[in-house]
Design goal:
By secondary structure, this protein is of the alpha+beta class. Helices cover 52% and strands 12% of the residues. The protein has 19 helices and 12 strands. The strands form 3 sheets. The protein has a 7-stranded antiparallel sheet, with no helix packed on it. The protein has a 3-stranded mixed sheet with strand order 9-11-10. The chain has a two-stranded antiparallel sheet with strand order 8-12. The longest helix has 29 residues, at 158-186.
Length: 452
Amino acid sequence: MLPTQFGGPKATVGLRRGFSKAAVRPGPAGPRQKWGRVRLGLARVKGDWEQQFSEMDAMTIRQTAGLPRVFGGRFSDGRTAVSHDVAVTFDGDLLVISNANGMAQLRWPLKGLEIAEHLTSRSSDVMLHEPGRKGGTLYVADAVFIRDLAAKAAHLTARSRRWQGVRPFIWVTGIAAAVAALVYITDFSPARSLAKLMPREARVTLGREVVRSMSGGRRVCTQAAGKAALETLAKRLSEAAGRKADFAVSVVDADVVNAFAAPGEQIVIMRKLLETSDSPDEVAGVLAHEMGHGLDLHPETGIIRSVGLMAATEFILGGTGGSLANIGLYLAQLGYSRQAERQADLHAIAILKRSGISTQGIMNFFKRMARMSGEERDAKSRKSADEALDMLRTHPSTAERLALFASQPAYPATPALTDSEWQALKSICKTTSEAPAAPAPVKKKGERPRDI
């Protein structure tokens, strides 16, 4: 028994019990009591440390040691109603499932996993199906596992599912855009391809119907000297156009500043355009532009695009049925694209150069149309402006066209017609005919019908 100064019997009991608080209360604190308190403190620290490690999650321990995280889950093989507790880990692109009950370790490829409900940021559990839906299922209720799974197998997320639904539409839109770009770059046109298949006789027949419809019952100008001058000019430009072109040009007695190309190499000029022009070179420039439309089959292409494939097939086969009735109304409602107008301008430049006619005439014509469309403000000039705009509405800007023609190098040129021929052409409407149809191109002796 210890002396009283060391606490007596109660102190002894306290030492045996691990230096409890009751053991150190009585008596003054001597050296041995102080040492007992130190031992008690060390024991408490050791106990707390052991308790912390015992309560530490196994996943945290493995992570601290650099090992893969282990998640708890329930596995069912699909053959029985029994499910087993399993440990789940990630191993590269595999999901590894194992347990301590003798079950063979499973290694599921992440990219083949299927899921009952796609993962979102609010998912708290997940049910995974064995790749190929062979029957095995794995249930895990762990937010960390779900986060890691979403990062490693993005196809299981709701975002990926939405993307998979939108992807076909994106592909279709992309393909359509690529086709449209290819068509634009290569200038491919299915309607133009069909137009090229039309026999020349069918194009001429179609062109006559267009002329009849667009002339609106107006009379055709037939003064003999004027017709001769017009044929001289048309022949000169047709020979320069190449491709064995043989354009037929007629004048309609209409108070409109306009000209248009019809299928089958037919061109119609309105009387007011002749009266507005100051020189035969201006008329030659307009004719060369319309010939450019004819060379590229723009009238035929526009009509086929408008009436559709069935009517186009009838044209190709040379049909002359009801589909040709009022066909000119289609062309009257169509406007060439700016690209087609630029192509026609380029043809006009080439035709004028080869025929030895200056481009200054058509440049003067464009300038006059621009003045009529914008500079004069009284009622009469506004009416003339409307007539001018009827021709210029779908064409490129005047400044753009002037710049194109002005950029061409100079070349030797002669007037399109003599003074007497020009005066005769301007007087061509002194005599008119009731027949509105344009004249058919004159075939050369022994020449076979030709396609462009």
